[in-house]
Design a protein that fits this description.
Endonuclease, Chain A, eight-stranded mixed sheet, 8 strands
């Protein structure tokens, strides 16, 4: 094992994500990649998470979200959606509509620094790892998915 901390349960998963966002703000990681079929169970809309992201983003930083759809993000995380409007030039939302939800990993990746990953999304079992080999495997998986993705969740909707 890589010295990973185990995640056991939904609260532990959410706490690991909160801690990762807070660490990103403190450490100034260059890139964050968030991947989930729909982000339903992520604490993206929480004030503390949005504050951490606000402290983190800027300059040469970039946030990418990958999902099969963003309906839950718009519905459950309105504070994050409003935050994204301000930072749209540094935040990419990518959809992988031709993939099944089961094929989309649940992970937060700060390349070279931290990986938060669920291996069992029903029971919320996973791990937090700082092992570069784990991060490399996650990055390779994400890169393949990104190649099959398209822009999604536009900041503004054009209408007549």
């Amino acid at each position: 094992m890589d010295g990973a901390n185990l995640i056991e349960g939904r609260k532990a998963f959410e706490d690991a994500l909160r801690a990762a966002f807070a660490e990103a703000a403190a450490a100034g990681w260059r890139e964050l990649i968030l991947c989930d079929p729909d982000f339903e169970h992520w604490p993206l809309g929480e004030r503390a998470v949005v504050e951490s992201l606000t402290q983190w983003i800027g300059g040469n930083r970039h946030l990418t979200l990958i999902a099969t759809h963003f309906d839950e993000v718009a519905r459950r995380h309105s504070r994050w959606v409003r935050w994204r409007h301000q930072w749209a030039h540094l935040v990419s939302c990518r959809a992988v509509v031709e993939m099944s939800a089961d094929d989309v990993p649940v992970l937060l990746l700060a390349t070279g620094a931290l990986t938060v990953q669920l291996d069992d999304r029903v029971r919320f079992l996973g791990r937090v790892s700082r092992d570069p080999a784990v991060a490399l495997l996650a990055r390779e998986k994400v890169d393949v998915i990104l190649q099959r993705s398209t822009e999604a969740l536009p900041v503004t909707t054009l209408g007549l």
